[in-house]
């Protein structure tokens, strides 16, 4: 019994550390504050941050305990749209922070068509997410 309690404490602690690291990474990239800045709704920044944290917590609870959401099949496209927008902005914030695209463009000597490269990444991410979600059911 003590081994199971110890394993539960270690698992819970490790999960909290990973979740804390992820949320601090999101905060460090400035995705939430960038959303508030672009939409001119900076006075609601605490609401945005609480929503991100609550979404992460509820998502984990629903996933771990297998809680069924009523009308989940109808809400899935809406969730996919908002989740895709958030992940896209998150990855672009990371790319902006790390200057991935300028370094890549310079290395491959890409002079024209950068917009098509970015569009291809976005479309590929979207199609990959659609394939993933539709193959799960």
Automatic annotation (TrEMBL):
Keywords: Membrane, Transmembrane, Transmembrane helix. The keyword Zinc does not apply. InterPro entries: SpoVAB. The chain crosses the membrane at residues 6-26, 47-67, 73-95, 116-134. This is Stage V sporulation protein AB.
């Amino acid at each position: 019994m003590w081994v199971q309690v110890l394993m539960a404490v270690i698992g819970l602690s490790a999960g909290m550390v990973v979740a804390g690291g992820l949320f601090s990474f999101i905060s460090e990239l400035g995705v939430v504050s960038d959303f508030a800045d672009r939409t001119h709704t900076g006075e609601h920044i605490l609401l945005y941050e609480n929503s991100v944290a609550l979404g992460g917590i509820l998502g984990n609870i629903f996933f771990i305990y297998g809680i069924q959401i009523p009308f989940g099949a109808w809400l899935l496209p809406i969730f996919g749209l908002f989740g895709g927008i958030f992940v896209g902005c998150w990855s672009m914030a990371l790319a902006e922070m790390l200057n991935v695209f300028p370094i890549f463009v310079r290395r491959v000597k890409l002079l024209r068509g950068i917009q098509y490269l970015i569009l291809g990444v976005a479309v590929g991410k979207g199609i990959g997410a659609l394939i993933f979600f539709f193959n799960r059911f």
